[in-house]
Specification:
homodimer; 376 residues; Lyase, Ornithine Decarboxylase, Chain A, domain 1; eight-stranded mixed sheet; 18 strands; 24% strand
Chain lengths: 376, 376
């Protein structure tokens, strides 16, 4: 919560929740990544927050971009990035979207299976491809599923197939899991990557690049290590597994780049009990799972919440959104301590909400409009 | 899947998934409800699908409307409903939204606690209120949480408070749980309602209305009882608990009114394995949890899926969406049997998707546009 955001919110008069992102914080985060990993190119994960102001700032700072769709590629280009600074990092792409990306000049693509390689070979001849491998994600607050990536043992076949079809099999990517709080997590994954490099080398394919993925955390309720700590741990792991022949590396921070730059202002719509003897109150806000706080699903991300009554005695609360949907409850399994004096109409600040909020908002569930956003 | 939808889809040329709703089916559903419960007013739950074409059709047929927000009230009015045919059924309302609804002429409001009653008394003086009570939801495929409603024992206090503040304490509502497959579920809830009626009567407050809620199912993979079966069971339960003094009743079908009228056409983007020995394949579609299929969360709703290769041998598949989000996996715990011959580019039909799809779609997650919709 920066002074600039506080000042902005003081002047705001409209009804409804909003997200305010302080671009100065994004700038600081970018510079911290660039300093912590000086030989690594930053590919900002556009999906975390694709606001034009964010993309333009990062493009001007020299960032590259990891795009999940043709729309995100077009947005990065519109913000001033050149096509050689864009990676089409989604492993699930329609062939006609690969063709569109190729026509826009994009030459770097993620794959995780033979069928995807064949799409790229047909629609983006000669492009560079990297193969995503699965990693175990131990230590992540939000471990990834097996959705993207193949077993490391399959990667050399995928890359060799790319090579045979005239593509440049350039490297390997992995993701250590979202909100990864253990800087050593990259070490295990890099051991697998080095094995893929060796196997490909034996097949006459010289890989040159490691995409270290995202996973860099933002501070929610618990402290997280600094970007510098991550940088040192990753550099040590690269030295351990690649010796003096460290490959070209890229990272794809999303949450780590912008999570802590944003604050959502919300309003308490109702405070009630289900019967008079309940010791847990229900606090209903004008934002919920379908208004942008989708990452509260399974109570995964636990956002810090500030109230105008902080300092008063606390009481356990279930926190829910404004829709009629029974799934629109954010914290119930583990109730959230809020001031017992909290009242209907109070404004709350939900911190660490710069990433993965605005674009998740539904178009109009229950008639509620999408989350308003301001990038200042 | 009707012939009209099939014909529409044959002519469609655009890229991307879409929802097609056959309004003739909505009309049939409305008439079935009206016939099965001839003395009950239908308040269509706008949140299920607020498309103007749907609202206009239902308004013309004589339906009333259950609205979750001021926007939904405005949409019902724009479709031709009069304010006396609209209930503001969300128990979580900003006081200024109550005032807006009152200014638009709405005089019927849901409450479930004292604080909400006080908002209505201030912002909608003299209005009719009904108190929502919790019910157990046994038999529902998607039981509701404790989010909306109070314990039945608290309801007389809430209604008495309304009465004292000059409101008309008109009745009680409940919800037997979404996709309720047991027509007897209304019986237990009505026993609680009758007790609230008696207690209020003893306090000199004569309640006159029971809102029987929604919960009427749509057919997904399993058969469901007919609307006629529900109508008979509800009428018997009303007779059992209210004898010859059956109160005014209303129902709020949403899913039951429009679920089976809609079909989503989607495309297979990728079919792959994570290693060569996997016996479960991953099938990625161009629609997922964030494109409109949010009700697959926790694999709650299991939609019927038709493919152009139905009849071929089946194999178990994980079905996932097109985004980079690891949560965007629809069926994994219980893999889904699809034809082993299924190929990238095949078009699938996801049936029973008329309700709770289009408005859930995210504004632009991963850059993917919201679900396109056609109401024919």
């Amino acid at each position: 919560m920066t002074a600039r955001i506080r000042q902005f919110l003081r002047k705001r008069a409209e009804d409804g929740p909003c997200l305010v992102v302080d671009l100065d914080v994004v700038r600081e985060n970018y510079l911290a990544f660039a300093k912590a990993l000086p030989d690594t190119k930053v590919f900002y994960a556009v999906k975390a927050n694709p606001a034009p102001e964010v993309l333009a700032l990062l493009a001007a700072l020299g960032s590259s971009f990891d795009a999940a769709s043709v729309t995100e590629i077009e947005m990065a280009l519109a913000a001033g990035a050149t096509a050689d600074r864009i990676s089409f990092g989604n492993t699930i792409k329609k062939e006609r979207d690969v063709a569109r990306a190729y026509a826009l000049g994009v030459r770097l693509y993620a794959v995780d299976c033979i069928a995807e390689v064949e799409k790229i070979a047909r629609a983006a001849p000669g492009a560079r491809v990297f193969c995503r491998i699965l990693s175990d994600c131990v230590g992540a607050e939000w471990p990834l599923s097996r959705k993207c990536g193949c077993e490391p043992a399959m990667a050399p076949d995928v890359l060799e197939h790319a090579h045979r079809l005239g593509l440049t099999a350039c490297g390997v990517s992995f993701h250590v899991g979202s909100q990864q709080r253990n800087p050593q997590a990259w070490d295990r994954a890099l051991a697998s990557v080095a094995a893929v490099f060796r196997e490909c080398g034996e097949r006459g394919i010289n890989l040159a690049m490691v995409n270290l993925g995202g996973g860099f955390p933002t501070r929610y309720l618990k402290n997280v290590p600094t970007v510098k700590t991550y940088g040192s741990a990753i550099f040590r792991a690269l030295r351990r597994h690649f010796g003096n022949r460290i490959p070209e590396t890229i990272i794809e921070p999303g949450r780590g780049m912008i999570g802590n730059a944003g604050v959502i202002e919300a309003e308490v719509v109702l405070v009630s009990k289900k019967n008079e003897n309940d010791d847990v109150r229900w606090v209903y806000l004008d934002i919920g799972k379908f208004g942008g706080l989708a990452e509260t699903m399974d109570e995964s991300i636990r956002y810090p919440i500030r109230t105008p009554r902080d300092g008063d005695d606390l009481a356990p609360c279930v926190i829910a959104g404004p829709t009629c949907d029974s799934a629109d409850v954010m914290y119930e399994r583990e109730p959230y301590a809020l001031p017992i004096s909290l009242e209907i109409g109070d404004k709350l600040l939900i911190e660490g909400t710069g990433a993965y909020t605005a674009t998740y908002a539904s178009v109009a569930f229950n008639g509620f409009p999408p989350l308003k956003t301001y990038h200042i």
